[in-house]
Amino acid sequence: MNHIVEAFIILPGGIDTIEGLFTLISWASEGLHNRPIGLLNIDGYFNNLIKFLDDAVRQNFMALNQRKLFISSFFVDELLDKLEFAKAFPGPGASYEEFANPGRDVAEDADAGL
């Protein structure tokens, strides 16, 4: 399926949804796909998961380049714009946040809850 899609969008859901997200992150980190992954963070549904993954990066349990494999937004239009941008730059490199906000420390933003 991953060869016919332009991007993956994860909506709030249960354990199977979270498993799907982690599978996509794993596949991307192994080079099995280079499609952008987006989380539609409706009502902050994924806030705790994002914080958990940011903490895993800070504690060296997850590589920062794996954390950069997905994008999140509270708003559909913004998420679609970010995914469209990410499609233009597949593979490793600057994340959308780093490109849009040069010089800003994304890890510090996570610490501040941004």
UniProtKB/TrEMBL annotation:
Q: Which reaction does this enzyme catalyse, per its entry?
A: N(6)-(dimethylallyl)adenosine 5'-phosphate + H2O = N(6)-dimethylallyladenine + D-ribose 5-phosphate; 9-ribosyl-trans-zeatin 5'-phosphate + H2O = trans-zeatin + D-ribose 5-phosphate
Q: Which InterPro entries match?
A: LOG_fam
| Main enzyme class | hydrolase
**Keyword Transmembrane carried by entry:** no
Please provide the Gene Ontology terms (biological process) for this protein: cytokinin biosynthetic process
Annotated coiled-coil segments of the chain: none
> What SUPFAM superfamilies would the database entry show?
MCP/YpsA-like
The record's keywords, sorted A to Z, are: Cytokinin biosynthesis
Q: What is its EC number?
A: 3.2.2.n1
Concerning Pfam families, the annotation shows:
Lysine_decarbox
Q: Which domain of life is it from?
A: Eukaryota
Gene3D superfamilies associated with the record: 3.40.50.450
Q: What does the protein in this record do?
A: Cytokinin-activating enzyme working in the direct activation pathway. Phosphoribohydrolase that converts inactive cytokinin nucleotides to the biologically active free-base forms.
As for family, the record states:
Belongs to the LOG family.
State the name under which the record lists this protein. cytokinin riboside 5'-monophosphate phosphoribohydrolase
